[in-house]
Amino acid sequence: MNKSDGFEIKHSIKNKACAINSESLASSVYEELKRRLNAGMLKPGQFIDLTALGNELGISRTPLRDALIRLELEGFIVIYQRRGVMVKVLQLSDIRDIYQIIGALEASAIEEISKRFRASDADKMDSLCVEMADALSVDDFDRYYRANLEFHDIYLELSENKKLIDNVHILKERLYDFPRRSSYIKEWELDSIAEHAEIVKRLRSADFKGAASYVKDVHWSFEVQERYIRKYYV
Fold it and tell me: Of 65, 86, 164, 192, which has the highest C-beta tally within 10 A?
C-alpha cells in the first residue's frame, strides 16, 4: 500500500465518522423538537424561528434541516419555501385518514400473527383492560393511555413487519401527543375498553379474521368514533 492509498483510507474513515456524528446530532435535534411539540412549547399553526432555535441548541443548519425533513415526512410540520417552517395543525380530514391507515395496518398485523399468538398474550391483554378500567375509576388518564398503547403493542410486536409497527407508533403520536391534551372524554374511553375486550375475545378464540375486521371496522373506524372525535378534537 502506498502513501496515497493510506491517505484515501484515512480520509474515507474521517468522512464516515463525520456522517455518523451528523446523523446522531440530527436524531438528537429530532427528539428535542418532538419533546417541545409534545409539551406545547411549539404550538400548531406556529412558525418556528429556525435562527433562534439553532442558536439556542448550538447547532448548524445541517442537523436542524435533517431533523425538520424527518418531522415533515411524519406529518408533524410543514416546510414552506421562502415562508418558513410551521407546526402542522391536525385537521379533521387528517384524523379521518390516520384512523383509516391505523385500522388497516393493525388489521394486517392481526391476520399475520395467527401462528404466533398465544393464550398468554390474551391474558396480558385482559389484565391491561382491567388496568385501564382501574385507571379511569380514579381519573388517571396517563396510566390509562400507557396501558392502552401497551394493549395494542402486544399483538403489533408479534408482527415481523417492523416498518408497519413504526408507522403505527408515529401515527398514534400524531393523534395523541403533539401536543398531549390535558383533558379526555371518559365515556369514549369506557366504550374503548369494551372494544378492547371484544378484540381479546376474538383473538382468544383464534378468530383472527374477525378480530382484524373488528379493529378496522369498529375500533379504528372514523365513522363509528366520529361523535367522540369531534368532541375531543373540535
Answer: 192
Q: What is the DSSP letter of 118?
A: -
Write down the architecture of domain 3-87 according to CATH.
Orthogonal Bundle (1.10)
Superfamily covering domain 92-233: GntR ligand-binding domain-like (1.20.120.530)
Grid cell listed for 211: 378480530
Q: Where are the domains of the chain?
A: 3-87, 92-233
Q: How far apart are CA 223 and CA 164, in angstroms?
A: 23
pLDDT in tens, 145-174: 999 999 999 999 999 999 999 999 999 999
Confidence of residue 179 (pLDDT cuts 50, 70, 90): confident
Distances 232 to 95, 105, 129, 150, 176 between C-alpha atoms, Å: 11, 24, 22, 22, 11
Q: Are 106 and 125 in contact, with CB atoms under 8 Å apart?
A: no
DSSP 127-165: HHHHHHHHHHHTT-HHHHHHHHHHHHHHHHTT-S-HHHH
60/66 Cα distance (integer angstroms) = 11
Distance between first and last Cα of the chain: 68
Cell 417492523 -> residue:
162
Continuous segment of H or E residues that includes residue 48: strand 47-48
Cell of 233: 378534537
At 5 the pLDDT is 53
Contact (CB, 8 A) for 219 and 195: yes
